C-alpha cells in the first residue's frame, strides 16, 4: 500500500501554470527577507517575540482573547476538536467538511468524537437542519458538543457562507449549549469577497483559525484563535501532538508579512477565478460552477473525458489542476496572473478537443 504523495509523471515539463492548489505558492523575495530579519526565541518556551506579535495581531483581527501558532491548518482542527470534545461526543458538520473528508480519520482516531454529516448545496446547511439534528439528552444519544463550519467551503466550491446564515446556525448551537468552531482555512478570501471584517465574520464562533499557506502565500503556519481559557487548554494538545516549536518566529514573520501585503490582493485572485470560469463556460461539454472566491470547480464528463485524463494532458503542457469530489478544481493564487488564465483556458480547450 502506498500512502506517499505521487510524483509528477516522467517526461512532463516543469509546471508553469500552477492551478493545482493555492498551497503551492512560493514565498516572495520580500516575504523571505521579512523572515530572515525576524527576531526569534524559543516558541515552546513562550519567548519568541515574532510569534507573540503574530498571535496578538490575529487575536485582535478575529476579536478573540487569545491565539496560538501551529504548523498547519489540519493541526488547528485537530487541536480545536480535542480541546472542545471528549471521547464519544458528537460534532455536527457538513458532509464535505475537511474534518470529515481530508484529515485521515483523525477525529475518530485521536479525539474519539463522532462527526454527523449534514447535507446542503455548496458546503452549507441551514439553521433548520441543525435544529432537526438536535437529539434528546438521554443516555442513548451521544452528547452533542460542537458545530463546525468551513468559511470558505472548499469542496463546496470556495463558497462564502452569508453572515446571517453563519450566525443563524451558530445561534441554534449556542441555544443547545454546544460550542462552535470555524475552519477558516480561506477565511480571508471570504472576508475580501464579502467585504466583511474578519471579527464580524467570526463573531458567533468560539474558535476559529486561519491558514497562512493557502492564498496568503506563506511557507507554513496557521493560527487558532479563541478565549484565553480555550487557548490555554489547547496548549496541552499542541504540546502532546508535537506542535510546539522552537525558533518559529522565522515562519511567523512570513505570516505577518502576508497579513500586511497579501490580503487585499486576494480580490485579484477572485477576478482571475471569474475570468477562468467565463473562459471554461465557452468550452463545449464543460459545466462550470460560478466561483465566489478563488476556487473554480468544473465537470468535464460532458466533454467525454475524465478528470485524470485531463490532468495528464495538461501536465504535458506544464499546466496543473487537481481533482476533487469527481470534478476538476483550479485554484487561483498569487503565482497565477491574468495572462496565465487566458493561456490555461486555451490548453484546456485543446486538451478536451483531443
Ligand atoms: C487546506 C485545508 C485545511 C488543512 O490545512 P493544512 O494547512 O493543509 O493542514 C483544512 N480545512 C480546509 C477547508 C482546507 O482547505
TrEMBL record:
List the protein's name: GntG family PLP-dependent aldolase
Q: Which cofactor does it need?
A: pyridoxal 5'-phosphate
| InterPro entries recorded | ArAA_b-elim_lyase/Thr_aldolase, Low_specificity_L-TA-like, PyrdxlP-dep_Trfase, PyrdxlP-dep_Trfase_major, PyrdxlP-dep_Trfase_small
Question: Where would I find the Aromatic amino acid beta-eliminating lyase/threonine aldolase domain in this sequence?
Answer: 19-301
Give the family this protein belongs to, as stated in its UniProt record.
Belongs to the threonine aldolase family.
Recorded source organism is Paracraurococcus lichenis
Q: Where is this region: Disordered?
A: 1-22
Composition bias (Pro residues) maps to: 1-12
Binding partners and assembly: Homotetramer.
The UniProt keywords, alphabetically, are:
Pyridoxal phosphate
